[in-house]
Write a structure and sequence with these properties.
- The chain is built from 15 helices and two strands.
- β1 and β2 form a beta hairpin.
- It is mainly α.
- The relative contact order is 0.11.
- It has a two-stranded antiparallel sheet.
């Protein structure tokens, strides 16, 4: 269970508590969480707006309670944390998506020359469209050669190849919406004419096209590096070499005060924290005892107190992390994680592989042998066994 003491108030104390709590996570995600904590605190260490600083400090305390609950045995929060660490959700997913949509650099001089030629053609087309617009009096907006947008910088062939592979892959419990295999063409979803039967303006067509690609990139699960993918596979199979990556370190016992406290809460011993009876006079009991309820014990770390009407029983949702739990968790994340490699010699073709465990039936042990006595390999009972 997490430590049960008042939450830290100073930003430096919150920062240290977060780093300490991150050290109890599985080693495979400790580095990412610690780097994320350091980055966020250093970016806003000189915040000039007091209101914004209070909001960020409150968010940091919320994240501290989240990490404590995950380490204490909250399965749902631990899964959310692992999804963020492996780039299925959160900031790391956005980084992987940016890497996915970025065009590949030219491999040789021929590809570089082809890229320069395409850029020149676009510049000439934009210039011609501007001259045509000036002569006809029609504004450039909605015509060819408009301002370049984000879609011009995307490698849409890679995104479409990944989306097609994801639509036919057997992915369960995905944090992203499903992709329908029958809707893989942006032009097919864009109408050819407007409500008056006139041809759709180019500006409107481009806007709908960008909206379609935004919806598609919102659904895809971006690929990772091959080394990380192999590590996930080893964790999913429960290999001995990967045990050090998922085995959580043991928590250091909480320090106890050596001073004797006499004014304590009812039902607690003399070594417990001092009972501040004044707050019970000014605040409702239900709000003061809320942190001791079974639902919030994982977040607050409050120990069970017999005097509280909300503290009947252990925390709700606590789970003891076992090797089987970790194998199943990493297997679920692995099957929604692909690797994407360009096929050698194939123009615009990609080799996409998704993680998948082979279904292996366990062998029967000697203790179950008596149930199969007198039965052949086809499951039929022998004649002698029938007579008996």
């Amino acid at each position: 269970m997490p430590l049960s003491f008042p939450g830290p108030q100073a930003p430096l104390h919150v920062y240290r508590h977060l780093l300490r709590e991150a050290s109890y996570l599985p080693p495979v995600c400790t580095a990412y969480v610690k780097d994320r904590i350091r980055t966020r605190f250093r970016r806003h260490r000189r915040e000039s707006d007091p209101a914004a600083a209070r909001l960020r400090l409150g968010k940091a305390r919320h994240d501290l309670r989240f990490l404590r609950a995950a380490n204490a045995g909250d399965m749902a929060r631990m899964r959310r944390l692992l999804l963020k660490c492996f780039g299925r959700t959160g900031p790391r997913r956005r980084e992987l998506v940016n890497r996915l949509v970025a065009p590949a650099p030219p491999a040789d001089s021929a590809e570089l020359a082809e890229m320069v030629a395409r850029m020149k053609d676009k510049a000439v087309e934009a210039s011609d469209s501007s001259d045509e617009a000036a002569e006809s009096g029609v504004p450039l907006k909605g015509r060819k050669g408009g301002k370049p947008d984000f879609l011009d910088k995307w490698d849409t062939s890679k995104v479409l190849a990944l989306a097609k592979s994801q639509s036919v892959a057997s992915i369960t419990n995905s944090p992203r919406p499903n992709i329908k295999s029958g809707r893989m063409d942006a032009d097919a979803d864009i109408p050819k004419s407007n409500i008056w039967g006139r041809p759709l303006p180019l500006k409107v067509h481009r806007t709908k096209e960008k909206k379609w690609w935004k919806a598609m990139i919102h659904r895809v699960l971006p690929p990772v590096e091959k080394g990380e993918w192999n590590l996930l596979g080893a964790l999913a199979r429960g290999e001995t070499s990967a045990k050090a990556s998922w085995e959580m370190p043991s928590r250091r016992p909480a320090a106890r005060s050596v001073t004797h406290k006499s004014d304590t809460r009812p039902g607690q011993d003399a070594e417990a924290a001092v009972w501040d009876w004044g707050i019970y006079v000014n605040e409702p009991v239900r709000s003061l005892e809320r942190k001791s309820s079974r639902k919030f014990k994982l977040l607050t770390g409050e120990e069970q107190a017999s005097s509280s009407p909300y503290a009947a029983g252990p925390p709700v949702g606590i789970h003891t992390f076992s090797p089987r739990f970790w194998r199943r968790m990493y297997a679920n994340i692995w099957q929604m994680t692909p690797i994407m490699e360009k096929r050698p010699g194939a123009d615009g073709k990609f080799q996409i592989t998704w993680g998948k465990l082979k279904a292996e039936l366990p062998y029967a042990t000697n203790g179950y042998g008596e149930f199969f006595e007198g039965v052949d390999s086809k499951g039929r009972v022998s004649r002698q066994q029938r007579v008996e």
